[in-house]
Amino acid sequence: MPRPTGPPIGLTLARTAKSVSRAFDDALAAAGGSLPVWLIMISLKTRSLGNQRELADAIGIRGATLTHHLNAMEADGLVTRQRDPANRRIHQVALTQRGETLFGRLAAAATEHDRRLHADLSKEDIATLERLLHRLQSNVGSEVPEATAGSDA
Amino acid sequence: MPRPTGPPIGLTLARTAKSVSRAFDDALAAAGGSLPVWLIMISLKTRSLGNQRELADAIGIRGATLTHHLNAMEADGLVTRQRDPANRRIHQVALTQRGETLFGRLAAAATEHDRRLHADLSKEDIATLERLLHRLQSNVGSEVPEATAGSDA
DNA sequence: TATTGTTATACTCTATAACTATA
DNA sequence: TATAGTTATAGAGTATAACAATA
Asked: What angle, 0 to 180 degrees and rounded to 10, lies between the N-to-C axes of helices B35-46 and A9-30?
């Protein structure tokens, strides 16, 4: 029983993801950020999340890991954490002006990365790719993250 | 100028890759391995690589990082390193019997992961996805890794 | 007691720089 | 000198477990 197929799609995806993620990391680093910082910021900007647990879930990390990043971001003056008066267990995370500025730079870097990524791909190609990626994601049993439709980069 | 598009494909790819890679990592870990170990083994099995530098390049890591992994793999009895008599600077890396056994287990885990990933996708879907992923990879300027066609999982 | 988040600690993967061995 | 690889060290991202604060 011959197998006309190439390497397993998981391996191709892993390799592609590694290359593309690394390029994205480099682009974000050049703009003064990193992938976790970018994911945290874009989640803060485009989703309504009640607490840090939800924020961590949206990004796919644990609460303690999020605290780790928020500590660094707060030390860098990018975010503030204030207790919610209505429920003082909850820390409300907000971007500072400096955080907003960095967000703008990272958004530009992400847009440029995306432009590069699109290159020779048609709109249909992108739509197809998006659809297939979402299906892969649901196939591994993860929740498909709420699409951040309309958000820039 | 409205933007009817959803989130940038780079973000979708990053999130999908994270979910899928994590699921793959978990599957490999359950089988007693890890992604780097798997990539090293499959490269040893399916490519003809002259030295460790080429092996590192094939995987997308630096030589020192490869040494780090090979040290651990050698300590675990998975590989041997022997100097090439013709050029004693070169270390020939080979899987031990135990390495072969683990390779078999990891291949099975990878195949199962792939089966899960395919789920509701047709052959055409997979071919399309593969084509698009390769184009993404070339769009970020990386060399498209030599396809390990015919290799299982 | 349950929920929210932090602190302490550690692991994995990766990298750069300095080094050894060989050619 | 140039090449192949290793050692030493460090940094980023992640995780678990124990803890403190609040409800």
From this structure: 120
